[in-house]
Specification:
Chain A: It comes from Dyadobacter linearis. Chain A: It holds the Pfam family ABC_tran. The structure holds 2 protein chains of 2 kinds. In chain A, strand 1 (2-11) and strand 2 form a beta hairpin. A 6-stranded mixed beta sheet of chain A has the order 6-9-10-3-11-12, sandwiched between helices. Helix content of chain A is 41%, strand content 28%. Chain A is of the alpha/beta class. The longest helix of chain A is centred in the middle third of the chain and has 15 residues, at 95-109. Chain B folds into 2 domains: 3-280, no CATH class; 388-439, no CATH class. Helix content of chain B is 22%, strand content 38%. A 10-stranded mixed beta sheet of chain B has the order 2-1-5-8-10-12-14-16-18-20, with helices on one face. The chains are: A alpha/beta, B alpha/beta. Bound molecules: adenosine-5'-diphosphate and magnesium ion.
Amino acid sequence: MLSINDLRASIEGKEILKGINLEVKAGEVHAIMGPNGSGKSTLASVLAGREEYEVTGGSVLFEGKGILEMAPEERAAEGIFLAFQYPVEIPGVTTINFLKTAVNEIRKYRGESPLDAAQFLKMVREKAKLVSMNDSLLKRALNEGFSGGEKKRNEIFQMAVLEPKLAILDETDSGLDIDALRIVAEGVNSLRSPERAAIVVTHYQRLLDYIVPDFVHVLYKGRIVKSGPKELALELEEKGYDWIKAEVEALS
Amino acid sequence: MTTETIDLKTKLITDFYARESVMNGEAASAFHQKKRAALARFDQLGFPTVRNEEWKYSSVKELVNESYNFNSESNVVLADLEDLKIPEQDANIIYFVNGRYNAELSRMVSSQAQITISSLSEAIKKDPQLVNTYFNELTKESGEGFTELNTAFAQDGIFIHVPDNQTVEHPVILRFVADARTQNVGNQPRNIIAVGRNSHLKMAEAFRTLGSGRSFTNAVTEIYVGEEAGVEYYKVQNESEQAYHIGTTQVRMLARSQFYAGTVTLNGRFTRNNLNIILDGERCEAHMYGLYFPDGTQHVDNHTVADHRKPNSESNELYKGILRDKSKGVFNGKIFVRPDAQKTNAFQSCKNIVLSPEASMNTKPQLEIYADDVKCSHGTTTGQIDEEALFYMRSRGISRPEALSLLMFAFCADVVSQIRIDSIREYLENVIAEKLASK
Ligand SMILES: Nc1ncnc2c1ncn2[C@@H]1O[C@H](COP(=O)(O)OP(=O)(O)O)[C@@H](O)[C@H]1O
Ligand SMILES: [Mg+2]
């Protein structure tokens, strides 16, 4: 589904991603872990099409199509979704109105007719229930004055509405209490299917108790320096990153 | 000098005396004497130049170098004016074409016992004394050439009088149409609105130009808000690329009254709005909202004054602007708190989004506070579009233009939602949505 080949990206002339290789097949969940500043958010942003980052090399194929030339909205319409580490507050635009626009723009891209108000509301109510999202939040300006937990839940809610093929979650678990974490995980798991995939960026093993990954990768200094089965996450939880850093330094 | 290059000022002054010379006894009337005095002041003041502090960023050179027909006929019919549709039964709609009242197009639904709505030209014939108690009483010391010019040529416009204790249910909508389809036209509507004690009125002034000739509108509105009265006043400018508009709205509020102003400039070559409010009683509440949206090489200048003269009153101001292409905006907001006006609350905010590197915005808050126990705050911001917000929206599948549109619409909504005449607000929402979609 997603095939990243020697991806390099920089910002303000500084190279952050230094040759990423990653293969994600339909049905799989990949966890990406690593110390702060390793480039995890950068990778997520480059996949979603953030324009501040300059891609300096490599390729990314999504279902066989090169996406690096696509605008962010085209990637979304192709089925890529990024849950932001820091969701943006948008004054004056209600969550519901925002999502309605998003859903119908994506439908237009796919040559489908727009949902009418009733169909849309029905669908949204179901999804809101799924992530225990309060109806009153939907009518408020997008993320404005939302608590950290509400913002993260809103990300998962939007994901549930848009039903992406590939979901990229950037530290959606940080700052959540255990109940909120469970809700987020349920949201993600409800989308799990043989046709879909997810990349879960996290600091903590605890999210992976709920969203069990097929593979765990460690990103460090712009490279994936270690990959393994789900047990790797447990090992990292126990031993921290120092041993990995030491391994990398020894090699270089 | 050939006759064609006689400047506008000289031509207007000559016209004035030519008209006066063919008047009968009328020249001796109080009304005419006020006009005559105003002409003398206009002669002294002339048109402002950029050396005048109040006109520093807004040059009227181009405007005064044109000539205009101030007496042109027009055959405008309703079908030409269908952009703003207002359900028949819902409002009093009064049309002025090239500055003159048009009875054929106008319709009134409110009862005469509640409100007198008449053209100024009629009112001055019927009840000169009543008109003269109001005419030019708020503007006589304006020190502003354009205002004096308007007074000198005051001939038509609206005269509204609401007696005490009336709540006028149906709004009054004034439509000013400059018909520049065959020539350059000038018009100088003069409006007087007097709202009695404990009475309530909603009104709007909507300006529109037809055709591609130049139009010069020099409008003055005097508004008297009685004790405990409430007036909502909206001004909507959707004029042409060739339209010059100078407008002054001068308001005096008495104790415990409320005044709401909404000034929305959607289109026009050169626009200058002066909104001057005197809070001349205790516990008054004045609200000023403004929105401007210039593109191309358009110029929009809003000057406002909140003059607190008595204790315990409040003024609250929010102006917002979106500037595109090579357009220019100016905002100057003055707050005076006179020595008597203790416990004044005055808030002012002006927020702008500049969408192009060639567009510019000039903001100047000006606070003059002579009382010590007051709360005043002001703030202006001028920024670009929030790229982070744009990326967030795009990452959800919303195209860049659509995302921009949503953000801009939301930006305008703070002001538009304050407009409480439904048909006017809906009209604005439609025009703004169209403008946003156009680029
Ligand atoms: N907008 C930016 N401008 C400059 N440097 C940046 C920017 N975004 C990220 N970086 C730098 O890139 C590196 C990787 O950051 P990031 O991808 O956020 O790491 P992670 O998500 O793994 O914590 C850091 O050194 C960070 O300082
Ligand atoms: Mg990060």
